[in-house]
Amino acid sequence: MDSDMILAKNKADKLRLTLITINDKISRGAKDPLIVKLASQITAGKSKDGKIKAIADYVKERVRYVKDPSGIEVIQDARDTLRLGRGDCDDLTILISSLAKAGGLKARAKVVGDTIKDLSHIYPEVKGSRWHQVDLVDPAFFLAASIGSNGPWKRSLAA
């Protein structure tokens, strides 16, 4: 199992360490032989947009959202999220982004909050015919993206 717990002295350090860890896990997940094989099976013969839908459907059917323990940031790799069948928004972002990249798509993570110091959510965006928001945690964000709303403040992570 490859999970990291982020314990930091302040919010800024916690955010920085969390984003670095997420980026690293996405990069490693996209190269993991199990994730590469699974992405190939899920996306075979599909268009770019079809691949995104297939990945989202696959994850939605197999992984349920579960919050981290209070005050502790646990960040799982893609393989562990699949094995456990659960994870929070960062775990789902890592899994979806890893599958997308392993399937030949571009993916990036978006962080959301009222200010840069108060980020409360992260979700993946995957490039098909356009950038698609693949937020399986918060249907309101997913719906807003599908109708073209930018929603609250967002920032891309170079994943």
What would you say this structure looks like, in words?
The protein is α+β, with helices and mostly antiparallel strands and 159 residues long. The chain has a single domain, classed as C8orf32 fold. It has 6 helices and 8 strands, in the order βαααββαβαβββαβ. The strands form 3 sheets. The protein has a 4-stranded antiparallel sheet. β6 and β7 form a beta hairpin. α2 crosses α5. The chain is globular. The relative contact order is 0.18. The C terminus is likely disordered.
Taken together, the total number of domains comes to: 1
Q: Could you please say which CATH topology applies here?
A: C8orf32 fold
Q: Briefly note the structural class of the backbone.
A: alpha+beta
Q: Which regions have little confidence, pLDDT < 50, spanning 5+ residues?
A: 141-159
Largest sheet: 4 strands, antiparallel
Q: Give the percentage of residues in beta strands.
A: 15-25%
Strands in their spatial order, largest beta sheet: 7-6-5-8
Write the layout of secondary structure elements.
Blueprint: E1 3-6, H1 11-31, H2 33-43, H3 48-62, E2 64-65, E3 73-76, H4 78-84, E4 86-87, H5 89-102, E5 106-113, E6 119-127, E7 131-133, H6 139-146, E8 154-157
Parallel strand pairs: 2-4
Antiparallel strand pairs: 1-3, 5-6, 5-8, 6-7
Helix pairs in contact: 1-5, 2-5, 3-5, 4-5
Give a quick summary of the entry.
With 159 residues, the chain is of the alpha+beta class.
